[in-house]
Design brief:
10 helices; binds zinc ion; Rossmann fold
Length: 298
Amino acid sequence: MKNTPYRGRFAPSPTGPLHFGSLMTAMGSYLAARSQNGQWLLRMEDLDPPREIAGAADDILHTLEAHHLHWDGPVFYQSQRLSAYDDALAQLAREGHSFPCRCTRKAIAEQRSTRSSQAAHFDACREGLPEGIATRTVRVRSGDTPIHIDDILHGPQEPYPSREVGDFIVRRADGLHAYHLAAVVDDAHQGITEIVRGADLLDCTPPQVHLQQLLGLQHPRYCHLPIAVNSRGEKLSKQTHAPAIARQTPGPNLYQALCFLGQMPNPALANEPPDTILRWAVAHWNVNNINKHNQVVA
Ligand SMILES: [Zn+2]
């Protein structure tokens, strides 16, 4: 995709306000895009109503605006894309890449502990269910095609046997579309050329690349940024009670995110307005300066 114009994206879930870790990821993907004269799109991953918080989507947008992280085009909402995900599910089924599964989480764990390591990755339902058995989920077949991932920050990864991914869920027991399915369908639809996201999502990359192969979609490039952790080594998140980013102090927040990303901004920038900081950051963005390891944020 050498000649394709750069298109990046930030794709938060509206499960709570942005915290420092998510602002840093937003900024990393923004700077990667803008430094290559690329577009930066915003996708709201609002596919999981039980986990969502009323008002969180708008709150995230206001926080990004307060930091002058302006996106291109309208905000893209996954909740409006259900028919596209259904089409992808139908394609997988039609081409024999998916199968209905009746297993509970507990049954899967038992299967994996009692079977040989080779078979442990394959779901017992993949050969078909007897008539009249109620299905819970839809799973995708993993196979033996190696999965190649060349991460911009972490370098080329060992070819990953798709078998190791296991037969994974594309439609959940509650009927909702699974995250991997929606993400790859939308990355292709939005023409995303590079995915910059947190290293906590590294494990999502093999199943997503596997799905791209099955659905005949373009492979974007990947760049997994270090994640911000607390003193106990836990990722900053709603679950670990990370505080919401303060909208009143956009300059210092951006400055701190730049430091986290290893960009070594001049300390005088800390007190400048957001546009000045972002202009400097776009001009000086260097992915090689990013420390690959997760870092503690007090
Ligand atoms: Zn099963």
